[in-house]
Amino acid sequence: MTATVQARPAEGYAGDITPQQAWDLLAGSPDAVLVDVRTEGEWRLIGVPDVAELGKQVVLTQWVTADGRPNPGFLTELAAAGVAGDGPVVFLCRSGQRSIGAARLATSAGIAPSYNVLEGFEGAPGLDGLRTREGWKVAGLPTTEYRP
């Protein structure tokens, strides 16, 4: 059984979903995969989503490197991790911006449906500069330390 999700329409990929919708899709679809496309530095400092209670592991593949350059091996790394588009693929970054590009590229490579998580892992910073208003963490979804 595959869960259905009401995604916000988007150009070039299946659409944008909230962190809670992402969790529900991952929980309701055995073939759904979560791909965290932040940098290794972000994983180390901030942590990563934890989907172990769903019997899944997060695929960690950088969309851009720490110096801001595109990761030329992105699609190869997805394939090596077994991400082939056999089920929904949910892309997540820090605030929901970089993961749009990842979802578009994956879709163009036949990895679909690919979704972007609005708000990302931490969300956009508020007026105080803190990321405490939105995102996977603020929604209270499971997180864990990065363990390479």
Automatic annotation (TrEMBL):
Q: Name one Pfam family in it.
A: Rhodanese
**Chain segments annotated as coiled-coil in the UniProt record:** none
PROSITE patterns with a match to the protein in the record: RHODANESE_3 (PS50206)
Q: Where is the Rhodanese domain?
A: 28-145
Q: What is the superkingdom listed in this entry's lineage?
A: Bacteria
Protein name (Swiss-Prot/TrEMBL): Rhodanese domain-containing protein
